[in-house]
Amino acid sequence: MAMAADTPEEPGRVAVAARPPELLQRAHLIGIGGAGMSGIGRILLARGAEVSGSDAKESRAFLTLRAQGAQIAVGQAAENLDLAGGDPTAVIVSTAIRDDNPELAAARARGIPVLHRAEALAALMEGHRVACIAGTHGKTSTTSMLTVALQHCRLDPSFAIGGDLNESGANAHHGEGGVFVAEADESDGSFLSYAPDVAVVTNVEPDHLDHHGTVDAYIAVFTEFLGRITPGGALVVCADDAAAAELACRAEAAGVRVLRYGRSATGEHDARVVAYEPADEGGTVRLALGGEELEVRVTVPGEHMAFNAVAALLAGLELGAPVDGMLAGLAVFGGVRRRFEFKGRAADVRVYDDYAHHPTEVDAQLRAVRHAAGTGRVVVVFQPHLYSRTEAFASEFAEALGLADEVILLDVYGAREEPKPGVSGELVAERITGAAVHYEPAFDRATALAADLVKPGDLLVTMGAGDVTQLGPEILAELDRRGV
């Protein structure tokens, strides 16, 4: 593990040719506005590829992609395959694209190669040193922290993240540093397309059972992921998470070098967390690493975020970044869009937005919110995501939401799923204890309800993976309108 004392003037970098793989020289992306797909489009355009695509509706991702030269259609039709002036060399899809999609069906009929998003990203990783960050929770934040810290070390990594960095406003970038950092999504098993030199597993907890079917199958896909680590590569893993710690043992048995972090990490090359000290904004981890004691400072609240920073530190050191540069970069990390993102203040009420959509994430984030709220109350507007997840974890969601003072419970955001009889937001609402609960199935009434409930000094957070993110600005506007 490299632990140079100072950031060099020009860290050693391996230039990577800005050329797309031959198969992706003229790529058509179905659902190009999505977080993962738009990132691939950005990188392809930066490498000189012709890019076309389509999506059901306009999004802010369209503006950047069009400005860079992408041909994009709103709505999906077979003729969209001709946007770039001829057959694409490949059509790229995500798991969300159904077989009856007219563009996908037309591509297959014409014999155009069809790649999953992860397969396309794997092709873009070729020739780089690759770091992939996986785990049930914390993937986006950890990937973002690692990316920002490497940028601070002037290593100019390429990256693909499931959220927009606050520093750059981007979710992807083609860099010239010879390093590629990517968020590795286990939800559909597609991260098995990657071959990382450094893999991070933050934690493993049952989720996405709509795809994997059983808890055992979900855990098994992480075991397969370990087998994708390149010879001589390393696994960075949280020793405090029981399932992740078990994965670490399996990896070691298979000959993979393992670096653990957490309070339970005790090995010679591990990062042992000695203490965590919260601050008004963020916190500090005291860390024993390589015979030294280090301080890792973060400006985002919550112990879980500080632990994510430790994972990013270990991954960065494995990639050859200097320790001082990594620590400095982590200290200035400004967060990720929709990860406890500050939306504004009105009537002495602070409003944030957060992507938490699993009970463990909700619990961790509300504990951090409680500290950030100080003497004020915590009001959460929560939107369950997926009928299958709501049904499986209704009691766990209720327990986590009970950490707030006031809970507005919206109905389920179904996303890719059809409604399920008997499964609604009320399933969670009726189980909550310890907080005042307001079940509001009518989305358009939530803004006024939130404005009615909040008091000066409160902290309100909109939470969930669906369109609940729209409510923060609306609540601020309503508070301003009322002149409270």
TrEMBL record:
Keywords attached to this entry: ATP-binding, Cell cycle, Cell division, Cell shape, Cell wall biogenesis/degradation, Cytoplasm, Ligase, Nucleotide-binding, Peptidoglycan synthesis
Span of domain Mur ligase N-terminal catalytic: 27-128
| Keyword Lipoprotein included in the entry's annotation | no
| Xref: SUPFAM superfamilies | MurCD N-terminal domain (SSF51984), MurD-like peptide ligases, catalytic domain (SSF53623), MurD-like peptide ligases, peptide-binding domain (SSF53244)
Tell me the route in metabolism or biology where this protein functions.
Answer: Cell wall biogenesis; peptidoglycan biosynthesis
What molecular function does GO assign, one term? Answer: UDP-N-acetylmuramate-L-alanine ligase activity
The record places domain Mur ligase C-terminal at 338-466
Q: Where is the signal peptide?
A: none
Compartments annotated for it: namely: Cytoplasm
Domain (Mur ligase central): residue spans on this chain: 133-315
Q: Which Pfam families match?
A: Mur_ligase, Mur_ligase_C, Mur_ligase_M
Catalytic activity, reaction form: UDP-N-acetyl-alpha-D-muramate + L-alanine + ATP = UDP-N-acetyl-alpha-D-muramoyl-L-alanine + ADP + phosphate + H(+)
- Sites where the protein binds ATP: 135-141
Q: What is its main location?
A: cytoplasm
> What would be one Gene Ontology cellular-component term for the protein?
cytoplasm
The record's top EC class is ligase
Any coiled-coil regions, as ranges: none
Question: What is one Gene Ontology biological process annotated in the Swiss-Prot or TrEMBL record?
Answer: cell division
> What Enzyme Commission number does this protein have?
6.3.2.8
Family designation? Belongs to the MurCDEF family.
The task this protein performs is described as: Cell wall formation.
Supply the name of the protein: UDP-N-acetylmuramate--L-alanine ligase
